Amino acid sequence: MLRDISLKVAEGEYVSLVGPSGSGKTTLLSLIGGLDHPQSGQILVGGHDLRTLSGDGLAAFRRETVGFVFQHFGLLEALTARENVELALTLAGVSSARQRHHRASGLLHRVGLGDRLEHRPTELSGGERQRVAIARAIANSPRVILADEPTGDLDDNTAADVGDLLEQLREEEGCTLVVVTHHRRLAARAERSLTLEAGDLIETRGGER
Predict the structure, then answer these.
(1) 158 lies in a domain?
(2) Residue 87 in contact with residue 121, Cβ under 8 Å?
(3) 208: exposed, middle or buried (C-beta count within 10 Å: 0-12, 13-18, 19+)?
(4) Band (171; pLDDT cuts 50, 70, 90)
(5) pLDDT tens track for 93-150
(6) 40: in domain
(7) For residue 6, is it within any domain?
(8) Whether the predicted pLDDT of 158 surpasses 60
(9) Can you give the pLDDT at residue 206?
(10) Residue 18 burial (CB count, 10 A)
(11) Distance, C-alpha 139 to centroid of its chain
């Protein structure tokens, strides 16, 4: 349970969240992303007061403002890499199949998977699946990317590559990046690192642990 949390993240900032399991990291990320509702307090993201939104309003906020990256990728096994990214564009209201195809293909080339467009998740490595998930997360040019343990299932070298990609895309897109991680090297790359312990928030500078 989170208590008395006060957090301000500047537009375009890169912030990491660390702490032991059960400390509230994923809960905080879910609150920022509009997946959970707070019992009290206020959450403002990109000019939206999330406590005033419900139903279609929250769905529109998540669709238009936030891109999610998860530890276990969250890809649909029956779809190819390109189709997984296209699905996000369909949900975002891109009605033209040609536009979806072009955008998805371009994003997968951008994350280094130009030769894997028609491969299904089971035919991809863990690092490649996470790259597909990242391409899907930025498909609608979100203002905020929320990544929950994006390197948790990856070896150190692949984790470093995914960290490089997230940082590169954040700089290119000009979006805000908030990463929950147990990976100390990934956490240290952020401009600011926040530690959650038993629901309390402790702030340190990136790279100081």
Answers:
(1) yes
(2) no
(3) exposed
(4) very high
(5) 898 999 999 999 999 999 999 999 999 999 999 999 999 999 999 998 999 999 999 9
(6) yes
(7) no
(8) yes
(9) 55
(10) 24
(11) 12
Does residue 128 lie in a domain region?
A: yes
- Cα–Cα distances (Å) from 150 to 49, 56, 115, 129, in that order, read 27, 28, 22, 11
- Which CATH number is 144's domain given? 3.40.50.300
Quick check: helix, strand or coil at residue 104?
helix
| Helix axes 97-110 and 126-137, enclosed angle (nearest 10) | 130
Q: Where are the alpha helices (DSSP H) in the chain?
A: 25-32, 56-65, 81-91, 97-110, 126-137, 156-173, 184-189
Residue type, 86: E
Residue 158 domain boundaries: 14-205
Whether pLDDT at 1 is above 80: no
| H or E stretch at 179 | strand 176-180
Chain-wide mean pLDDT for the chain? 90
Query: DSSP character for 10?
Result: -
What sign does the CA torsion over 97, 103, 108, 114 have?
positive
Q: Could you give the number of structural domains in the chain?
A: 1
Assess whether pLDDT exceeds 90 at residue 69. yes
Q: What digits encode the pLDDT tens for the residues 129-139?
A: 999 999 999 99
Token reading at 14:
């890169």
Radius of gyration of the chain (CA): 17
